[in-house]
Write a structure and sequence with these properties.
By secondary structure, this protein is α+β, with helices and mostly antiparallel strands. It has two domains: about 80 residues; about 210 residues, 2-Layer Sandwich (Alpha-Beta Plaits). The chain has eleven helices and twelve strands. The strands form five sheets. Strands 10-2-12-11 form a four-stranded mixed sheet. A two-stranded parallel ribbon has the order 1-8. Helix 2 packs antiparallel against helix 3. The longest helix is centred in the N-terminal third of the chain and has 21 residues. The protein is globular, with a radius of gyration of 25 Å. The chain starts with 7 loop residues before the first helix and ends with a strand.
Length: about 350
C-alpha cells in the first residue's frame, strides 16, 4: 500500500484554520461598538474639525477598542470615558440601566436644578400601535403642538416641535403650497383644512436604514426608537426621513425649570443632550403603560385616535375598516403607522 504524501504547507494551513474556528465570534455588542467608532471616524474625516478634536475622539476610540479586545475587559468600567462610548440600549443589563438612569438623573439635577425620575419602558410584545387623525375634524388650533412640547421636554430655545400643522386649501393636497406658519386670529379659516404631521413610525423606515450606527430601530410594538446616548449626530436619518419628522439639537436644549416634566422615559421624553437627533415617540413612556399620547388627550375636537391595530375592536381597527383612509406619501412605500381619515 502506498503511503500518503503529506504536504507540510497544507498541514500548517489546516492547523491554522482549526485554531481560527475555535475562536468564538465577537459579541454583537463589540461589533456594534466597532461599527460606531468607524462611523465616527468617517464623520470627522468628512467634516471641518480641529486636529485636537479629531485626535480626542478618534485616537481615544481606537485605543480603547484595542485595549478592550486584547485585555478582554469592560471598557466602560475600566476607564473614565465620555458618554460617547456608553453601551447600546439593547446591550444594557437591568443593573446597568439602573446605574445609568441614576447617573442621568444626577446630571439633570446638576444642569437644570430639577429632580427627575428616569425609567425604562420596554416595547410591548402584545400590541402594534397605530395613530389615526381625522382631517374632517381638525381645526388647526395647535393645542397638540403645545401639549407635545411640554410632555416631551422639548427645547424652547432653540425651539423644537415634533408636530407641525399644515394649512391647505380645501380640495387640495399640495404639500408644497401648504402654510406651516399661519397665524390668524381664529381657526379654522374658511376654505382651509389642517393636517398635523409628525413621525409616521413607518414599518419600512428609511431613517433606520440610513443610520450608520444602529442608534435608531423599529420596535415590535410599532414605535421607531432612538438611543440618544448612541446617536453620533450625523443627521443621516434626518435627511432620509421624507416627512421632516426628525430634529437636530444644534445647541444645548433650554427649558424653564418649572416647565420640565419630571416623569421621564430613557428612550422617550428625557431631556436630550446637545448634538443628537430627536422626534415623536408616540409618548412611549405613557402608551406602554396603557395611557394615551399627550397630544390626543388635549385635542378639543376628538380628531386624534390611538390604539392597538391587533385588537379588531379597537378604535383604530374600526377606522381602518370603515373610514376613508389617506396615507401621507404612500407612493414611497414607507408603510406609516400614522394614518389620516375622513368622516
Amino acid at each position: 500500500m502506498r503511503e500518503a504524501i503529506v504536504n507540510p504547507e497544507t498541514t500548517e494551513k489546516k492547523a491554522e484554520t482549526e485554531v481560527e474556528t475555535e475562536v468564538k465570534p465577537k459579541a454583537k455588542g463589540e461589533l456594534r461598538i466597532q461599527k460606531r467608532l468607524q462611523a465616527l471616524s468617517d464623520r470627522f474625516l468628512k467634516s471641518t474639525v480641529s486636529r485636537r478634536s479629531f485626535l480626542k475622539y478618534v485616537t481615544l476610540g481606537t485605543t480603547t477598542a484595542a485595549v478592550a479586545t486584547v485585555a478582554k475587559v469592560n471598557v466602560a468600567e475600566a476607564f473614565e470615558l465620555p458618554d460617547l462610548f456608553r453601551a447600546h440600549y439593547k446591550e444594557l443589563t437591568p443593573e446597568e440601566k439602573v446605574k445609568l438612569f441614576k447617573k442621568l438623573e444626577a446630571e439633570t439635577k446638576k444642569k437644570h436644578g430639577v429632580d427627575v425620575t428616569i425609567k425604562d419602558y420596554p416595547e410591548r410584545k402584545d400590541v402594534k400601535f397605530v395613530y389615526a387623525l381625522n382631517l374632517t375634524k381638525c381645526i388647526g388650533c395647535r393645542k397638540c403642538v403645545d401639549a407635545c412640547v411640554k410632555e416631551n421636554n422639548q427645547s424652547r430655545d432653540p425651539q423644537i416641535q415634533y408636530i407641525k400643522v399644515l394649512e391647505m386649501e380645501n380640495g387640495s393636497f399640495n404639500l408644497e403650497k401648504s402654510n406651516q406658519h399661519y397665524d390668524p386670529e381664529t381657526v379654522p379659516q374658511k376654505g382651509k383644512f389642517y393636517m398635523p404631521v409628525q413621525c409616521q413610525h413607518c414599518d419600512n423606515p428609511p431613517c433606520v436604514k440610513a443610520c450608520p450606527v444602529e442608534a435608531t430601530w423599529k420596535a415590535s410594538d410599532g414605535i421607531v426608537e432612538i438611543d440618544y446616548e448612541w446617536c453620533i449626530g450625523c443627521r443621516y436619518c434626518q435627511a432620509a426621513c421624507p416627512y421632516e419628522a426628525r430634529h437636530f439639537n444644534f445647541a444645548t436644549p433650554q427649558i424653564p425649570p418649572e416647565e420640565i416634566n419630571p416623569n421621564q422615559g430613557y428612550l422617550s421624553n428625557r431631556i436630550r443632550p446637545y448634538g443628537v437627533v430627536e422626534k415623536c415617540n408616540f409618548c412611549s413612556h405613557r402608551t406602554r403603560q396603557g395611557l394615551l399620547p399627550a397630544c390626543l388627550e388635549v385635542c378639543p375636537t376628538g380628531s386624534r385616535k390611538f390604539g392597538n391595530i391587533l385588537d379588531p375592536e379597537s378604535e383604530v381597527s374600526i377606522i381602518m375598516r370603515e373610514k376613508r383612509i389617506y396615507v401621507l406619501k404612500e407612493e414611497l412605500n414607507t408603510m406609516p403607522s400614522f394614518i389620516y381619515f375622513f368622516d
